[in-house]
């Protein structure tokens, strides 16, 4: 638990630490109100049972000194009113304390989600591609929720613990022997149970989280491979792998839940055992049971809060231990959150002329010793069209990624209009249009897939639809550009998806256009039309084409071959 609190100290912001302190104070006040109601209840029961000797009680003497007009009959009435008002007031305080708890813990969930998403989306492209998508998805969606539950349970556990300590302390003052014997017995049993279940809960919780990650990964793989699964009738094989991970989730969840429930069930019964055993024992040794009635009645009222409170504490503790692995994952990621000041929404004017120069660009992947590109030098003048060809794996796409600014060269620089693009990433991003080989489409309308978070402009939309040879197709659809394409464009053909990708790139009105095998999924007739469009666009922008089809690059101004880490001009 101490480690959990230390981790929270790292995770919480300065403002959240202040909020946590306020929650701590209101929790203390709520616990004090609970104890105050218990004290009034004790005085009320004692007054009723010892009505004849009421004037000799300490509380009555204090009350009559403050209010001399108080009579024995008035005393009970006043206590009844105080008790009624106290119960209502306690309820409001308890509601407010819980509301602040939920607001604080949910605010932490929001902050964690934002931090982790920032860490992912603002990270370097080289780092992003190394991470399994299932791990990212689990961290942002599952581990943040688990950590939120953990924090909420920590606060709730503290609240219950303070209530129990204050109530037990008050009861000890009233009857030390009864409370100390039963309390020490319960505490001893709780510590034994805690020690027995903590380690297994953490172990099974880690296994459960790993199994959840595996199930997400299997689901992603199923979704991405669905066509191959159906063609090869591999449904049973994929199901077997998915259900294996789901079974691991189920088995480990059963174990953690069962272990978490054990202390609750055990302590409820042990607490009552000690209480009734003490009553029997005190009666056997000749104690006046009538005199113990106020204590026992108050103890019974306290047990109404304490026993469920102990049960909740054990449940909270079990869940905290269950979600500690998630908190550790958050902490490991949190410490490496990317805090770059990204000018995400800033728009730069389109450059009328783009001249690109690669100066001694070299590149190797961080997990490899082999240089993929070696001292590449290349000039792309304004409104030129350049083609890159070469064998698969030669480094064509990597070179394009470096020019786009997605990857940083190991050495050398990419200059655009004499500016190093690494120093002006947002400016350069505003000048670039990119059409990959595989177009990702969201489950949204054609219009939104082309705009892709750009403001909608009808004239610009019509223009790019015509340039991408989509105009006739769109007009043939009943809903036109409002037609929903389905997840990853499942309702479109490969050529239609590719043309939407080209339209998306053109909608940005780029000064530099990169097409990475962008016509590979098109038929010959459509490809010819797209090549004509690209040829027409050359007069307005600079174009870089990566292609295997020679027909795609026939009209390019220059063709370069990439091989052995070098680049040579072929024509």
In short:
With 571 residues, the chain is α/β, with parallel strands linked by helices.
Task: Please describe what this structure looks like.
The protein has a domain of 333 residues: ABC transporter type 1, transmembrane domain (ABC transporter transmembrane region fold), CATH 1.20.1560.10. The longest helix is centred in the N-terminal third of the chain and has 50 residues. Strand 4 and strand 5 form a beta hairpin. The protein contains 17 helices and ten strands. The protein has 571 residues and is of the alpha/beta class. The two termini are 69 Å apart. Helix 2 runs antiparallel to helix 10, helix 7 packs parallel to helix 10 and helix 9 packs antiparallel against helix 10. The mean pLDDT is 77. It has a six-stranded mixed β-sheet with strand order 6-7-8-3-9-10, with helices on both faces. It has a four-stranded antiparallel β-sheet with strand order 2-1-4-5, with helices on one face. The chain is 64% helix and 9% strand.
H/E element string?
HHHHHHHHHHEEEHEEHEHHHHEHEEE
Computed CA radius of gyration, to the nearest angstrom = 36 Å
CATH topology of the domain at 2-334: ABC transporter transmembrane region fold
Poorly predicted spans: none
The separation of the N and C termini measures 69 Å
Number of strands: 10
Give me the secondary-structure category: alpha/beta
Q: What is the count of DSSP helices, taking H or I runs of 4+ residues?
A: 17
| CATH class division of the domain at 2-334 | Mainly Alpha
- What's the shape? elongated
In the CATH hierarchy, the architecture of the domain at 2-334 is Up-down Bundle
Q: Trace the largest sheet across and list its strands.
A: 6-7-8-3-9-10
Beta-strand residue percentage: 5-15%
Largest sheet properties: 6 strands, mixed
Proportion in helices: 55-70%
């Amino acid at each position: 638990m101490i480690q959990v609190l230390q981790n929270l100290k790292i995770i919480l912001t300065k403002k959240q630490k202040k909020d946590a302190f306020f929650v701590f104070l209101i929790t203390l006040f709520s616990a004090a109100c609970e104890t105050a109601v218990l004290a009034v209840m004790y005085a009320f029961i004692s007054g009723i049972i010892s009505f004849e000797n009421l004037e000799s009680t300490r509380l009555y003497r204090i009350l009559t000194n403050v209010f001399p007009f108080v009579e024995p009959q008035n005393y009970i009435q006043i206590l009844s009113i105080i008790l009624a008002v106290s119960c209502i007031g306690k309820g409001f305080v308890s509601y407010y304390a819980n509301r602040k708890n939920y607001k604080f813990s949910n605010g932490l969930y929001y902050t964690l989600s934002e931090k982790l998403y920032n860490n992912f989306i603002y990270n370097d492209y080289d780092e992003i591609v190394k991470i399994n998508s299932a791990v990212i998805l689990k961290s942002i969606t599952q581990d943040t929720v688990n950590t939120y539950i953990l924090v909420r349970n920590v606060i709730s556990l503290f609240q219950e613990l303070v209530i129990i300590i204050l109530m037990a302390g008050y009861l000890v003052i009233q009857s030390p022997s009864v409370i100390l014997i039963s309390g020490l017995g319960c505490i001893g049993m709780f510590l034994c149970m805690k020690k027995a279940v903590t380690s297994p809960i953490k172990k099974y919780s880690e296994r459960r989280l790993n199994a959840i990650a595996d199930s997400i990964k299997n689901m992603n793989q199923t979704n991405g491979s669905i066509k191959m699964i159906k063609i090869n009738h591999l449904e049973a094989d994929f199901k077997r792998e998915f259900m294996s991970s789901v079974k691991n989730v189920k088995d480990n969840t059963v174990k953690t839940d069962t272990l978490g429930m054990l202390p609750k069930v055990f302590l409820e019964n042990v607490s009552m055992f000690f209480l009734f055993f003490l009553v029997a024992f005190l009666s056997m040794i000749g104690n006046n049971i009538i005199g113990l009635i106020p204590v026992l009645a108050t103890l019974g009222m306290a047990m109404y809060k304490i026993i469920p409170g102990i049960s909740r504490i054990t449940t909270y503790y079990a869940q905290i231990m269950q979600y500690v692995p998630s908190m550790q994952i958050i902490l490991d990621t949190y410490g490496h959150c990317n805090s770059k000041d990204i000018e995400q929404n800033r728009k730069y004017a389109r450059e009328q002329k783009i001249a690109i120069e690669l100066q001694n660009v070299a590149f190797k992947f961080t997990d490899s010793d082999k240089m993929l590109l070696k001292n590449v030098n290349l000039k792309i003048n304004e409104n030129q069209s350049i083609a890159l060809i070469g064998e698969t794996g030669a480094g064509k796409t990597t070179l394009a990624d470096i020019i786009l600014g997605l990857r940083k060269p190991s050495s050398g620089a990419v200059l655009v209009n004499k500016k190093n693009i690494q120093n002006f990433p947002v400016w350069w991003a505003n000048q670039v249009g990119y059409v990959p080989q595989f177009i990702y489409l969201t489950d949204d309308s054609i219009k939104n897939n082309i705009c892709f978070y750009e403001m909608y402009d009808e004239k610009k939309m019509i223009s790019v639809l015509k340039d991408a040879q989509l105009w006739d197709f769109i007009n043939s659809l009943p809903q036109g550009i409002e037609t929903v394409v389905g997840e990853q464009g499942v309702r479109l053909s490969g050529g239609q998806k590719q043309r939407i990708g080209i339209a998306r790139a053109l909608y940005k009105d780029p000064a530099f256009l990169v097409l990475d095998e962008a016509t590979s999924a098109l038929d010959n007739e459509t490809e010819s039309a797209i090549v004509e469009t690209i040829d027409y666009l050359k007069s307005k922008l600079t174009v870089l084409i990566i292609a295997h089809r020679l027909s795609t690059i026939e009209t390019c101004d220059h063709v370069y071959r990439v091989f052995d880490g070098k680049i040579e001009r072929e024509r």
